[in-house]
């Protein structure tokens, strides 16, 4: 009887997988031309002053050692390429900031791309980057035999130089035998330079192909499209304004070759949107996580997970989104992305929860670094909040079990938002025998509640913040996130009663300051303190509050060194 049931379940599972696969295959109809299928072999003569890419360089590839795993390992560094990079000079080389003049800063430079395209255009497509990896990375050996990869780069109206610098950096800094192909997936761009010029340009690289969608599909389906067309053993997704750094690829592929169910992410470095300088992110190696409004967050690696060798891969609960590598078959076993997700957003949660809960794992690899331009603003129309909300709700409904409630408590508007049919996703979850979200929280994201507790502890205090020395009050001129706080005459002193104005603040459990009282607070509105406020280093009084009616007083003090950090001193006076 039990065996019969098991068989039935297995069949049902297979059926669902087949259905999913078929529905994915339908995506084939989305793109029009698989451009440049049979390209001629290129000569080593490159027009336009473009240096030979991986031009037959003999790489130092001895150093084979037998490690405990019995896999022969070798040094994958391309020392010729490293020497070539070291000899380069010019604007932006070694990831140095471009010397900007005022004329370079005109708004027009940012308008089309969200970053300064004029500056980008004046930096070589083959520019060198600083090797900012941990020193241990230079000595690391990886398996001699690694899977090859298709590099999938979706783009929409990307700038010429930023798109091609992405491609060049991949070709320049990857062992050619590990690159099966580079797939540029054009999500219905209308920029002229991305038509014939691009086709002619990439024709010189036999491994680079362009796929084009027939209508705007959005990032998620564009990635799926690339994944469907890909033939490499591993899928590596990159954004269209990236630069791959020294030896970025072998450390990623090595982890997948050791465990094909591992999704790996490189460290994402920051390419400045003004001057194109190359730097690490604040905090560098951190774990990916989320708050309960489902905003992506980065958490410090907790002491329990810190290793003697900080260059070792570490587990990450949630990926940042755009940059990762995954075994191609494993990606499809996981159902790819939920095709019900629209355009952009939420997909990094879906794939992250899925891989962890369904028998895989996810790691960040410190020895693999890729730079990314974080835009100043998004230059094209992104579909409004509803799409993102709908995507997040789908993810919450399918994967988060009872924890979805914590999201709905913070975003009540999600509760009744229609998220479309999620039956197929739930069936997939069943057929893969995935674990519960509470398992995920207990075993993978166990450090998350330390920073983002599902149930927020009540505020320490709220009320006016009155300077002990000057008697002035802190005021928010504009009640929006990011506007500075100033000192003004206290409203109470001005004869106003005001509880709903810019002089009411809450001192949160995290010792952060938010505008409003605990009942009117919405989300985490971050208010930077104006230097003039900080320099007061004042003592303030505020009403103690576990509820909105309380009027006890406490004294609290700024810690001047930490912007907007507070320390609540002992409770002193009782107010009337
Ligand atoms: Mn991007």
From TrEMBL:
UniProt pathway annotation: Protein modification; protein glycosylation
GO CC annotation, single: Golgi membrane
Name of one Pfam family that matches: Glycos_transf_2
Location of the protein in the cell: Endomembrane system; Golgi apparatus membrane; Membrane
Domain of life: Eukaryota
One GO process term, biological-process aspect: protein O-linked glycosylation
Cofactor: Mn(2+)
UniProt-listed InterPro entries: GalNAc-T, Glyco_trans_2-like, Nucleotide-diphossugar_trans, Ricin_B-like_lectins
GO molecular function: carbohydrate binding; polypeptide N-acetylgalactosaminyltransferase activity
Catalytic EC class: transferase
The keyword Manganese appears for this protein: yes
Residues passing through the membrane, by range: none
CDD domains recorded: pp-GalNAc-T
Stated name of the protein: Polypeptide N-acetylgalactosaminyltransferase
Organism: Megalops atlanticus (Tarpon)
């Amino acid at each position: 009887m039990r065996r019969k049931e098991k068989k039935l379940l297995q069949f049902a599972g297979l059926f669902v997988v087949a259905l999913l696969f078929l529905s994915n295959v339908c995506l084939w109809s989305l793109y029009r031309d698989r451009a440049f299928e049979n390209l001629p072999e290129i000569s080593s003569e490159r027009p336009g002053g473009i240096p030979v890419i991986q031009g037959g360089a003999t790489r130092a590839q001895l150093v084979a050692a037998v490690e405990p795993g019995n896999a022969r390992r070798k040094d994958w560094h391309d020392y010729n390429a490293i020497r070539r990079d070291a000899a380069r000079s010019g604007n932006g080389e070694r990831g140095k900031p471009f010397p900007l003049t005022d004329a370079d800063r005109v708004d027009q430079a940012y308008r089309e791309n969200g970053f300064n395209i004029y500056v980008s255009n004046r930096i070589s497509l083959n520019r060198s980057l600083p090797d900012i990896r941990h020193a241990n990375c230079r000595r690391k050996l990886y398996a001699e035999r690694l899977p090859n990869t298709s590099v999938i780069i979706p783009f929409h109206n990307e700038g010429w130089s930023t798109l091609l610098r992405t491609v060049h950096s991949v070709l320049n800094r990857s062992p050619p035998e590990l690159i099966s192909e580079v797939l540029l997936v054009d999500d219905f761009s209308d920029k002229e330079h991305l038509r014939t010029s691009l086709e002619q340009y990439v024709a010189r690289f036999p491994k680079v192909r362009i796929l084009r969608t027939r209508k705007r599909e959005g990032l998620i389906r564009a990635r799926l499209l690339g994944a469907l067309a890909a033939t490499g053993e591993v899928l590596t997704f990159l954004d269209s304004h990236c630069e791959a750094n020294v030896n970025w690829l072998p450390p990623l592929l090595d982890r997948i070759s050791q465990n094909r169910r591992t999704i790996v992410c490189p460290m994402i470095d920051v390419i400045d949107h003004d001057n194109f300088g190359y730097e690490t992110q604040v905090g560098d190696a951190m774990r990916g996580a989320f708050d309960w409004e489902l905003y992506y967050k980065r958490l410090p690696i907790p002491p329990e997970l810190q290793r003697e060798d900080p260059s070792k891969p570490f587990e990450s609960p949630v990926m940042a989104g755009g940059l990762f590598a995954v075994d191609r078959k494993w990606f499809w076993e996981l159902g790819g992305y939920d095709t019900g997700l629209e355009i952009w957003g939420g997909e990094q949660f879906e794939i992250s929860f899925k891989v962890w809960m369904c028998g895989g794992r996810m790691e960040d690899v410190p020895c693999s670094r890729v730079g990314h331009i974080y835009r100043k603003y998004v230059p094209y129309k992104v579909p409004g909040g509803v799409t993102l909300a709908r995507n997040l709700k789908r993810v919450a409904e399918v994967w988060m079990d009872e924890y979805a409630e914590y999201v709905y408590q913070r975003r009540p508007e999600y509760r009744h938002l229609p998220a479309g049919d999620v039956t197929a996703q739930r069936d997939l979850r069943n057929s893969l025998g995935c674990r519960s979200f509470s398992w995920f929280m207990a075993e993978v994201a166990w450090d998350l509640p330390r920073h983002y507790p599902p149930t927020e502890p009540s505020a320490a205090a709220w009320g006016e913040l009155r300077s002990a020395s000057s008697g002035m009050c802190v005021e928010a001129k504009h009640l929006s996130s990011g506007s500075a706080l100033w000192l003004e005459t206290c409203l109470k002193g001005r004869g106003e009663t005001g509880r709903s104005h810019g002089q009411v603040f809450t001192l949160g459990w995290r010792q952060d300051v938010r505008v409003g009282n605990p009942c009117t607070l919405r989300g985490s509105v971050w208010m930077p303190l104006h230097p003039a406020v900080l320099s007061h280093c004042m003592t303030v009084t505020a009403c103690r509050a576990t509820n909105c009616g309380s009027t006890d007083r406490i004294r609290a003090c700024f810690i001047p060194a930490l912007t907007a950090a507070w320390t609540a001193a002992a409770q002193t006076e009782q107010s009337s």
